[in-house]
Amino acid sequence: MSKRKISLKEIFFGTVKYGFLIFLLLVFVMPLLTVFFTAFKTGSEYTTTSVLQLPNSFLNFDNFKEVFQKGNMVNGFKNTVIVLVFSLLGSILTGSMAAYIFSRFKSKFSKFVNGMFLVAVMIPGIATQVATFQIVSGLGLFNTRLAPILLYCGTDIMTIYIFLQFLENISVSLDESAIIDGANYFQIFYKIIIPLLSPAIVTVLITKGVGVYNDFYTPFLYTPNADLLTLSTTLFKFQGPYGAHWEVISAGIIVIMIPTLIVFLTLQKRIYSGLVSGSVKE
Amino acid sequence: MTTNTETVAVDSKNIKKKFGFSSLPYKKQKIIISIVFLIIPVVLLTVFTYIPAFAMFGYSFTDWDGIAKTKNFIGLKNYQTMFSDIKYWQPLFVSVYYLIATFVQIALAVIVAYLVSFGCKASGIFKGVYFFPSLINSVAISFVFIFFFRPGSTLDTVLNMFGLSGLTKLWLQDTGTNNICLAFVSVWRYIGYNIVMFSAAMASISSDILEASRVDGANKFQQLRHIILPGISTILGLQLFLSITGALSAFETPYIMTGGGNGTMTFIIQTVQFAFQNHRVGLASAMAMVLLLLCIIVTSIQNYVMNKKAR
Questions:
Q1: What ipTM was estimated for this complex?
Q2: Between 3.30.70.660, 3.40.190.10, 1.10.10.10, 1.10.3720.10, what CATH number should domain A70-280 receive?
Q3: Which residue of A258, B39, B186, B261 has the smallest Cβ count within 10 Å?
Q4: In this prediction, what percent of chain A has a pLDDT beyond 70?
Q5: CA geometry: angle A268, A271, A272, nearest 5 deg
Q6: A264 and B295 in contact by Cβ < 8 A?
Q7: Which chain A residue shows the shortest CA-CA distance from B255?
């Protein structure tokens, strides 16, 4: 430890700094904490106690039972997982293929397509939903899981740029030596590029996965059928029947947040670096 | 016998080589693989991004209701309707709340990133807690804050604790506070993302430069102003522009929390309501075109500014 004497000024600034950071911490934790408490309260307990008061017992799982039994949360999980798996597979495949062409074959054609993606960044997906909806229903995809899956695969430019960035760090001499060994371009892609892209794939899995898991408007607009509701739209439906039962809604909120929290706690570092690598390069 | 089968095997291998993909010259391979690998992304991009954008442009000149087989060309009438009545523009004023919130958010994020990046204990915990909201499901966040702002709920209880019970009101219904509350939710949700971005950019600023400036007598504020801000300017600009388009197209949180009622209607909520509830797809398309144009202008300015900086 340094022998430097800590001045009063430093103590003052230190106090202000940590005071401010801790105040912010409370601003972030409080709204979630009260929901967490409420999720374990009984109906009468919720109406009679302050929201800041701890529940009588953290072992009261009645609200969670309600969420799963009557709130159709299992169905929501099922649909979210299906959409998630296929849209992740799809966007990793299309994203890596497109990025491979953009980075390795700089022909006029590939440059033109790359430009198409660059221009598309400017079109905010939500602004064109009015017309996208007509196309989706025109293709007969309204109220099918294929609609969100295709939309998630098709509108994703972020993924391509994450792959492009990683590809630029994979030396072209690797491709060249494989060519000397007689490999064709497909083999180079599957046997050399894809394995080397695995960190990028993890990054895409996380960022894209979080985006799909959290999205509300796509399932809201395209799969309103009760059997096809995702977690987002299932929870959204809680507003009606449970309008006055905040203890049940709270349990629903917590249930949806648990997978996110687990992913965050286990992959924190990867999430940070993934976000940064996805945004710096535009 | 054995030699026979062997030759057959070799033959089939040769045939494969002759007619297979590998036998093609690399130039032809290049063309084929370019087409095969790009066809699906291009089709998806065209069908779900470009065609809708152009179709919307077309719809905006019609009186289409979204259901009927026929649509009548009515020229610029939708745009006239829009420009003639202030009520269609109200949502743009609502966007101002989100825009101001965006600037506050970015400024605050820079300060917080600075505080947690340099000589901060437990910085990982602070960053983690601030960041986590940006990963939460949008319906969950909206519900958390409907609950937070409910009468007698979290916010009111905290105010009561500090003897400020006079301040309590129907936060989400009161036209004086509801947009501020909604903008606050958006700051709460996304600021952690900015903090992580900025602190990553700050981490790449050499500590030697900071140390040298300290030796030269620069104070913390001067360091922030003259070394750190220029050091993160690229990502700062990028985040700022992204937040502006984000503010213009605010939809999910306000839609779920207030449904656009009591003067909280944003441009997208209005568009969605006209298209899917009032069945006025023509008019909704004209509105969406205006928003699209605004976003394109912002992004073009962004590209121009960023390119100029890069040079």
A1: 0.90
A2: 1.10.3720.10
A3: A258
A4: 96
A5: 90
A6: no
A7: A217
